Structure formats: C-alpha cells, structure tokens
Amino acid sequence: MGQDQTKQQIEKGLQLYQSNQTEKALEVWMKVLEKSSDLMGRFRVLGCLVTAHSEMGRYKEMLKFAVVQIDTARELEDADFLLESYLNLARSNEKLCEFHKTISYCKTCLGLPGTRAGAQLGGQVSLSMGNAFLGLSVFQKALESFEKALRYAHNNDDAMLECRVCCSLGSFYAQVKESMKIALQHGDRPLQALCLLCFADIHRSRGDLETAFPRYDSAMSIMTEIGNRLGQVQALLGVAKCWVARKALDKALDAIERAQDLAEEVGNKLSQLKLHCLSESIYRSKGLQRELRAHVVRFHECVEETELYCGLCGESIGEKNSRLQALPCSHIFHLRCLQNNGTRSCPNCRRSSMKPGFV
C-alpha cells in the first residue's frame, strides 16, 4: 500500500470513527498497519489506534500500539514524532497506573531537544506528569506540573487542555482534602501543614489570593512549631508569589529574604534557585540592574553547585539524552567517555571497575 492509498484509508477510518462506527474504523486502520510501507502513514495510523483504544478504555492495547509507534518514530528520525510517541507511551502507562514509568517517559519528553511540537504537546506532558505524581500522592510536584500545564493552555488558547487540567485539579483537591481529614483525626501536624500548603498553592494558582494568604500563614505556623525549615521556605515562597500577583513587590522581596535565609541555613540549593529566579524577575520589573546582576550571578553559582559533571569530558550530565554508567565505586560517567578511555579502573579513584552498573 503506497502513500496516497495509505492517506485515503486513514481518512476513511477517521470518518467511520467520527460517525461512531468504532470497530469498523479499527479494522480499516489495522489493515493500513499490516499493508502500508509508508512510515509517515504508519506513524499516523498508530496515533489513531492509540487515541481510539484510550477512549475505549482498552489501555493494554493502547500501550501495545504506543510501543510500536516509538519504533516507527525512531525509524523516521524526527524529534517531533519522537516527542509525540513518548507522550503516548507516558499516557498509556498513566492509564495503567504505572506512575513511575509515566514520570520517566514525561521527563524523556521534556529532555528532548527543541521541537516544533513542543509548544503544542508540552502542556499535555506536564498534565500527564501531574496525574502520575497525584497517583503517587506527591502533592507538591503534582501541583507544580498542573500549574505548568495550565500556563501552556493559557498561552496557546487551548480550551480542551485547560478543561482537562481543571478536572485533574478537582481530583487533586479532593485527595488533599481527604488527607487533611485523616491528618486532623490522627493529630498529624506535619501532614496538616503539607495539606494547608497544597490548599494555599491551589487557591493561588486560581487567583484566589484572599483564601491563599491565611492558608500559607497557617502552614507557616505549623512548620515553625514542628521545626520544618524547608516547609517554612515553601510557605514563604508561596506568600512571595501572592505579593507579586498583587504587584506588592517590596513585600514579596521581604518574604523572599526570609525564605533565602532559611534555605541557606538548611543548604537546600533547589529552593535557593527558585528564590533567586523570582528575585530576578522582580528586580528586572523594577529596573534595578545592580540587584538584578547580583541575583543572576548567585543563580548561576547555585546551578553550578547542583549540576553533575562527567569526570572525563567535563560536560554537564543531563543536558543531553546520553547513556550513563555508574561504577561500583559510585562515580558516574558518560558511557561513551569510558569506552573511549580504554581503562578498566575508575578514572577518579582508580578502583577496579570490572562489574559496572548502568543507570
């Protein structure tokens, strides 16, 4: 089956599918998959099969076609097709409640080099990752992912994506509410603080700052009581974002300064990165160049302190989708660097590395 015939049969299947003749549409698409030699057509029909089986609740079949689509995308050697197929693989695993795999495939999507489809599919990737974190009850990361997905939806006027994100936020809110109920029943103060922080973040993301502020205050009070300094940093960061939303930049900077002191005491570089990033945007909007440059410098210093580097080539690990090798001594290098190095011992500590492990 050639390119033109493949295209015609795919369109025929779509017409059948849209007229609710699902089984007939699947038969047409399966014949295309069996007989077509056109890679582009095969990729497209696999996407149709993935979507159809997802909507029918046949998630194992959905996963099967997503795996075949990945192989087709690799043959096509196109980053856009690879991104779409990895997203389908992530969503298939999400439906099957394989949440760790979902997160892994979503991270692969986000780590792919710049693609034309990235702006369109980035929101769906963030939504799928948020649903996976929610499935694992990792509430803070789930909310961060949902917020990213919502930004994609707003920036691209994607009403359908916005609707799906709001549905997920509804599930998120229900789970946090249930967790809060359990925390109150058992007197679990740390869990209460975490739930309050999540509630505050939800209201902030919705623009309901009047409700967000007291929730942050309550979370901050409990975090201070139990001595959770990192939790205090998260609460203060949320407060700062609320003040930014209200254009009260000086109050935002006061909250950031308090959070920065706590983050430095704890030594949490990720929190420091977030705070420096927010400070940058504030000083840029205020036109204060000296303060802006200071935070840019500190931001890059934190990045350097948190990055991993290959001990052989010196390149940052994680910027490219490269295979890594962990040696028994726990030192990590690019696999290609070790292969080119030609030694059977660790280049850092010289210990024997006869049985390497891959990561």
From TrEMBL:
Pfam families: Rapsyn_N (PF10579), zf-RING_2 (PF13639). Keywords: Coiled coil, Metal-binding, Repeat, TPR repeat, Zinc, Zinc-finger. SUPFAM superfamilies: RING/U-box, TPR-like. The keyword Ribosomal protein does not apply. The keyword Nucleus does not apply. GO terms for molecular function: acetylcholine receptor binding; protein-membrane adaptor activity; zinc ion binding. It comes from the Eukaryota. Residues 310-350 form the RING-type domain. Residues 245-276 form a coiled coil. One of its GO terms (cellular component) is cytoplasm. TPR repeats lie at residues 123-156. GO terms for biological process: positive regulation of neuromuscular synaptic transmission; synaptic transmission, cholinergic. Belongs to the RAPsyn family. This is Receptor associated protein of the synapse. It comes from Cebus imitator. The gene is RAPSN.
